[in-house]
């Protein structure tokens, strides 16, 4: 193995909840980034991937463990490490040239030298002729090129890319990814290692020498897949498709527990009241169940095939699958999705029967929804403010995660005819107390 550049040893990070208690975002993270490799990091939203990158970049400090850069403890930012953000993070009042020069200016470099270096990188990244343009005058792909140029002009040893292509349309993202690979392979950039955080499994397989799978709650490295295919890789090749299938298998392996027959029979961990809920809409869940029931699948499908048919992103698909597994409609094994008997009943049912079945599964498997229903039954008025449940969720989830969990719970509960919700007042109500139109 080549020389380590960045090492994380038993790294942990906590954030404070609304009650002042510490919530683990990262725990026991061990990771080494070596010279000459591209590593892709995959995991569900909220698993702590971006937090890990920010710790590596020195933007935030770890609460536990050690971060080493070239064998020395990392305190604050390192000149040899630069980060590219999903949101472009450009200064809107500065031209392309000035945005790219910004880091060099902060280091005190003379104007002539920083202009020369910026012009070289702007040309390298395909932005010649746009030096005087403002970010608002550029397309999304061009703005991301500026973000990449701003990182590359610092001549970093390590380039950290946090969902750098996800805000772009598919073709633009693919083209920019291929250009970064060409610059890397041709030695036109001095960067010695790249770490890419992504939700796109194909992107990870096409770029990386290693793919790491991140677990959630708290975030940690759960699995690793070395990739020895030479570059350039063809997305349609059997070797790449096999690796994509393998990554799906690794990412879904924790969705349940294998029984004696080798199949996943139940979730590995039952949901608790304050856990995040899969961000899955009813239409997507029903769409996958109906697709799975049809030819040529007949209740059993390869996950990449389902992804192609639904045109959902990998992140969206995994959220929907988690929801279907949670509710007992499907299970996963060896990277395949299989419909349960209950899932088959759901597909054959009429709309009213579907709602009844959905509501029954919610009460059995989603403690937050069961808790809301219990509270509504106990309250004489039959209605409760949503803030009551948001306060509860904030004890274990961040503000944003608490909002998302409650939004999902409300959507699911309303569909299951367990309660209603007044969008004007933010009040959750027993369904029999809500006037029918």
TrEMBL record:
Domain of life: Bacteria
Keyword vocabulary terms for this entry: ATP-binding, Cell membrane, Membrane, Nucleotide-binding, Transport
Pfam families: AAA_assoc_C (PF09821), ABC_tran (PF00005)
Start and end residues of each ABC transporter domain: 6-241
GO terms assigned for molecular function: ATP binding; ATP hydrolysis activity
Family the UniProt entry places it in: Belongs to the ABC transporter superfamily.
Protein's name in the database: ATP-binding cassette domain-containing protein
Species, as recorded: Duganella lactea
